[in-house]
Write a structure and sequence with these properties.
Two copies of one chain form a homodimer. Chain A is mostly helical. The first copy, chain A, is built from six helices and two strands. Chain A binds a DNA duplex (30 and 30 nucleotides) through helix 4 and strand 2.
DNA sequence: TAGAAACAATTTGCATGCTAATTATAATTT
DNA sequence: AAATTATAATTAGCATGCAAATTGTTTCTA
């Protein structure tokens, strides 16, 4: 196996997200939806622009994901304070339940990824990952 | 920022691949093409199934990527030894030149990601990343 | 060796992902 | 206040990504 950073990043991301997709399909979620539920659990009532930034995808992509989630009754989109330009997004009860299920799925996926790796090693890995994250991130994009 | 593994993995992957896309667009490559060139530089003459596995994507996706790369003269697809089922893929001269350019782009991207991180820290990060890679990978998929 | 099974690639249909252009609304400027 | 500018969301067009079905070829097996 190629041990370069870019290759392993691609491989880990691909396999991890495939694992998450497989599990989330069992609770009737498509690829783009888990990250949105995860974000809304922490930031319920955000506008679409901020959800997109938090999920690291374009607002144009977010439109489609959210409209399918609204159709399925996972979220609601509302105007607020007479502002008709911004749309505030809220989890429904069903959406909150599904988001909680996703937390378990993410957690089990993480356990699988770090299987056989000590807490200390995991800890310092995550610290470096955080530094990389900051290096690659314009602070305003992820707020 | 959310410091969970799954969140940071998503963020790093998104920002890193966006950086690579931006640079590779300058040498007229689309999203899926850099990883194929990178793979072929190490495994020229592979069949499509193996390239797909090496790039961690489905063979069905590979079909389209390769056909666009063939149209642009980056690769050639040939039959071999009277076997009309498998297609062996080779870099053209143009493809090889572009692949070499991509190596530079990947390398500069990696430098940006690890900016301010010591060689020792980077080394142990990559070791853990490799373990995670193995944990998530069925050996036969990536050979 | 004929039929069955396996295999490599493609096609189809859908859901992301992007950029660029558009629409509608809000805020600023003059 | 009217015109300009900025902003949030959507739409359109393309390239991935997937799963499932199909096609053509090869291998196995009875």
């Amino acid at each position: 196996m190629d041990k370069s950073f870019h290759y392993m990043l691609m491989a880990v991301q691909a396999h991890f997200s495939r694992m998450i997709m497989e599990e989330s399909a069992k609770v009737s979620l498509t690829t783009g939806q888990p990250k949105v539920l995860d974000y809304l659990l922490l930031h319920n009532g955000s506008i679409q622009k901020d959800i997109a930034a938090g999920c690291c995808i374009d607002v144009a992509t977010m439109t489609g994901i959210l409209s399918r989630m609204e159709d399925k009754g996972l979220i609601e989109r509302k105007n607020k304070n007479g502002n008709r330009r911004s749309l505030y997004v809220y989890l429904t009860e069903k959406g909150e339940k599904t988001a909680e299920q996703m937390k378990g799925i993410f957690s089990r996926g993480e356990d699988a990824a770090f299987s056989g790796i000590s807490d200390e090693e995991k800890e310092s890995f995550l610290e470096t990952l955080y530094k990389i994250c900051e290096n690659l991130t314009d602070t305003e994009v992820l707020q």
